[in-house]
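[job 4471] stage=fold_predict status=RUNNING
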Amino acid sequence: MSPIADILRKYGFGFDKRFGQNFLTDVNLLRAIVSDAGITDGDAVLEIGAGAGTLTRALAEKARKVVSFEIDGRLAPVLSEVLADSPNAQVVFEDFRGVTDEKLKSLVGEDFKVVANLPYYITTPIIMRFAEGALRPSSMTVMVQKEVADRLAAQSGSPDYGAITASVALCCDVKISRFVPRSMFTPPPNVDSCTVRLDFTERMPREEEARVRRLVKAAFSMRRKTLVNNLSRAGYPKEKTAAALAEMGLRSDARGETLSYADFTVLKNLLSV
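[job 4471] inference complete, writing structure tokens
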């Protein structure tokens, strides 16, 4: 197999910033990501953003089946060559954001894992699609900007803690797997990255989870505003919110950043929502 740079050059491929194309080529790193994801020969894997197919190929070495979505049709000949010896890898040239759960089920079933070097511009929408959706993988191991990784894994009360932290924590155990410097990508991006693993778990019934998540969104609707004020904007009476916070041992001027996902669950129960 020729080096990836040679294959890209062979087909006259030029990187398109619109698609956030920063490819991984280091074999040891690719295999480490697959190991971080815990991929075994019984797994069906969904990849979002095949790129040059390097991670796709590494996944196919371990998984039973890999289905990878790629938005850039210009990569078709590149992927055909890179994945020539990976019969268990399938590339679908389609924008993943428009793919229905029904189509996903037909391709990977209902028991699958997500592993991806996510383009920066779709990172949050992809993570939240699975956090909020009916169809969930057993885990997601994704390459994201370090800033995003820090937010996902933040503890309540820390500067990085926010709505996405609490919302994801409602259904996932989150762990930063490894730091990946910008120099590991082709072309190198402007920021460093991390791989993050999210293991999905059923902490509560889905209907209850959705109600807590609505409360989380309301609590963070305006940064640096108190919970009482933000929840009031969403229709929760100020007096009732203040009383609930007092019962939880929190000050009336507490902000959303101070509450863990478990605290939001307690608050939801006290507010009877």
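[job 4471] summary: The mean pLDDT is 95.
[job 4471] exit 0
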